[in-house]
């Protein structure tokens, strides 16, 4: 049967993200860019006739599920985010700001995969640096391996030829915005080129069963550069986050077809490379047993992982008519709301004082569960009295002054008890009724019954109601 062809009226396309529309608009409806929509001419619509099926459909029970089993990369924190490792044929997009450590992490992953002892071959394609620069970094972070092949290429056809020649088990392309195809007009990095390069690499990965890692750039607002269809084509989208002035790096999965998207990997970036942090809570605590006015420890959830973070507050008499409200690592709008609630509901004398708030270790707190810790840190600074030793606090603060429940309370308390904290300020009623809940270092964070799973020589933490309406532990 011959294919039927019809022609429809001309359309308009955004040069930034590839969004199309039937009429011209001044602002793109997808990426909100101004002046990027232009006419693309007449569009030919083709109706393809059915062809002979070479691989017929099979019952779902006969599909071999072993082909989708993940293989470890050798980096435990990266495997946690991916859902156990890399699946053969999977394409992973790793995005992040320039200089945050993407190339260092992936070079370490490439070397560990090549040295895994399973006979895996790894091809590292760099389009941003020379082969000598990558070799120097590999020597610095001890990422040398005999089965790790390196190619400095920017042409798509040459990259596909390298894959055909080396026949690797893992391919890393750094980055997808630097590779260009001679079959497509435009320079490397534009919407058409990124779409063509990504589609070609994905087709090669799927047909040969090669796990592929693509490095992607981000725009100034933090979103992934290039067409939005790029995120839909790949199997996993991983976001690399961190502060340039901090050693901590967080890797979280935004999209994952093979595992959860609520896992977070923690890394320590230094001059000798990047190292996974299975227990990163110590980076965010500046003191041990010493109590200091204006400080409070909270437990935040990064995905499903509880992290202890210290909030510090300083309240000083203002010398100017309009007091300052400065924050570091906290949402300034939410901090202003908490200060207003303290002034109105608790009659805290902070209206004419400068308030400075910061987190330890460069971590950024955006979770509402940190509201109570911020309020207690400010109150402690106002009264110049420290909170009790080994105390934590978490809960969402409402405009009426109430403390609202938060999710993941068993995991938060279990992590705090494991690190030696013995007092907890938490929202009222979240522990439910029944026997007095207890938390100790043997407390299982996976059970819904918050009671001690086995005897503890250090004694349990007994939680009781306090007069403020919250719950206090002794």
Task: Give a quick summary of the entry.
It holds the Pfam family ChlI. With 474 residues, this protein is α/β, with parallel strands linked by helices.
The average pLDDT value, as a whole number, equals 82
Which range does the strand content fall in?
25-35%
CATH superfamily of the largest domain: P-loop containing nucleotide triphosphate hydrolases
DSSP summary: helix tally: 9
**Helicity range of the residues?**
10-25%
Task: Characterise this structure.
Belongs to the RecA family. RadA subfamily. A motif (RadA KNRFG motif) lies at residues 255-259. Residues 67-218 form the RecA family profile domain. InterPro entries: AAA+_ATPase, DNA_repair_RadA, P-loop_NTPase, RecA_ATP-bd, Ribosomal_Su5_D2-typ_SF, Ribsml_uS5_D2-typ_fold_subgr, Rubredoxin_2. ATP binds at residues 96-103. This protein has 474 residues and is of the alpha/beta class. It has three domains: 4-47, no CATH class; 70-277, P-loop containing nucleotide triphosphate hydrolases (Rossmann fold), CATH 3.40.50.300; 283-473, 2-Layer Sandwich (Ribosomal Protein S5, domain 2), CATH 3.30.230. The protein has helices spanning 76-82, 102-114, 131-140, 156-166, 191-208, 229-233, 332-345, 371-383, 409-418; strands at residues 4-14, 20-21, 37-47, 91-96, 122-126, 148-152, 170-174, 211-216, 236-242, 248-256, 264-270, 273-276, 295-302, 305-317, 325-328, 353-359, 391-393, 396-397, 403-404, 423-426, 438-439, 461-465, 471-473. The strands form five sheets. Strands 6-5-7-8-4-9-10-11-12 form a nine-stranded mixed β-sheet, sandwiched between helices. A five-stranded mixed β-sheet has the order 17-20-23-22-21. Strand 13 (295-302) and strand 14 form a beta hairpin. The radius of gyration is 27 Å and the shape is globular. The termini are far apart.
């Amino acid at each position: 049967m011959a294919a039927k062809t019809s022609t429809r009226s001309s359309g308009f396309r955004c040069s930034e993200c590839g969004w199309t529309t039937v009429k011209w608009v001044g602002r793109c409806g997808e990426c909100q860019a101004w002046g990027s929509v232009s006419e693309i001419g007449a569009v030919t619509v083709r109706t393809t006739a059915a062809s002979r099926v070479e691989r017929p459909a099979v019952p779902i029970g006969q599909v071999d599920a072993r082909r989708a089993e993940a293989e470890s990369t050798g980096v435990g924190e990266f495997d946690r985010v991916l859902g156990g490792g890399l699946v053969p044929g999977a394409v992973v997009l790793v995005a992040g700001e320039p200089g945050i450590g993407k190339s260092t992490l992936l070079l370490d992953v490439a070397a560990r995969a090549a040295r895994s002892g399973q006979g895996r071959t790894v091809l590292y394609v760099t389009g941003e640096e020379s082969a000598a620069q990558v070799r120097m970094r590999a020597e610095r972070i001890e990422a040398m391996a005999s089965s790790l092949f390196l190619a400095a290429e920017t042409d798509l056809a040459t990259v596909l030829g390298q894959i055909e020649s080396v026949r690797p088990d893992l391919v890393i392309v750094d980055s997808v915005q630097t590779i260009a195809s001679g079959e497509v007009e435009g320079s490397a990095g534009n919407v058409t080129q990124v779409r063509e390069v990504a589609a070609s690499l994905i087709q090669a990965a799927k047909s040969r069963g090669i796990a592929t890692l693509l490095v992607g750039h981000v725009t100034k607002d933090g979103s992934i550069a290039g067409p939005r269809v790029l995120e839909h084509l790949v199997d996993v989208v991983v976001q690399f986050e961190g502060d340039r002035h901090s050693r901590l790096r967080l890797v979280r999965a935004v999209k994952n077809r093979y595992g959860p998207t609520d896992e977070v990997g923690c890394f320590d970036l230094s001059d000798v490379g990047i190292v996974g942090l299975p227990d990163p809570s110590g980076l965010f605590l500046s003191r041990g047993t010493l109590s200091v006015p204006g400080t409070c420890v909270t437990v935040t959830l990064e995905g499903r992982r509880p992290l202890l973070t210290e909030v510090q507050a300083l309240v000083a008499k203002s010398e100017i008519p309009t007091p300052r409200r400065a924050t570091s690592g906290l949402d300034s709008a939410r901090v202003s709301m908490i200060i207003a609630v303290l002034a109105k509901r608790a009659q805290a004398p902070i209206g004419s004082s400068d308030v400075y708030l910061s987190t330890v270790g460069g971590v950024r707190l955006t979770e509402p569960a940190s509201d109570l810790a911020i309020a207690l840190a400010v109150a402690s600074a106002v009264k110049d009295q420290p909170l009790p030793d080994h105390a934590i606090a978490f809960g969402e603060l409402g405009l009426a002054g109430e403390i609202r429940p938060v999710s993941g309370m068993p995991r938060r308390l279990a992590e705090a008890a494991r690190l030696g904290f013995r007092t907890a300020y938490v929202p009222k009623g979240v522990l439910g009724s029944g026997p007095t809940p207890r938390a100790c270092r043997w407390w299982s964070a996976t059970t819904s019954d918050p009671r001690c799973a086995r005897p503890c020589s250090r004694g349990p933490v007994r939680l009781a109601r306090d007069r403020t309406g919250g719950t206090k532990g002794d």
